[in-house]
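Subject: Protein entry, chain in single-letter code together with its fold tokens

Area: Proteins and the way their chains fold up in space.

Attached in line: The record itself begins immediately under this heading.
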Amino acid sequence: MWTVTVVNNKIKLMDIETFRAYCLSLPGTSESMPFGPDTLVFKVGSKMFALTDIDRFESINLKCDPEKAIDLRARYPEVRPGYHMNKRHWNTIEISDRLSDEQYRRWIRESYELVWAKLTRKEREAI
């Protein structure tokens, strides 16, 4: 179950600690910095499902179904084609007070599930 934190009648923004803790709570998730010391990457098995700039937590990159990605980009100004990623399959989502922690968590979970479904049976069984 997700919780939304309200501070001074305003929904609390997703922060890097919350993002990291939620990603690591998903089964089989590991974190690494394969692109250098500034980029934090989360993988399930051997495949990425989320990444962010560790110093400037301004956005997150998440995998997305291509049709849903188009819809989300049309509906939310915070959602753009994935920066430095395959723009058909990845979205860059700005951290914004217009989006709740719950919404970010839902999109993180969907990204995780898309990647999980593409793992080999052997990888899924090892998790």
Summary: The chain has a mean pLDDT of 90.
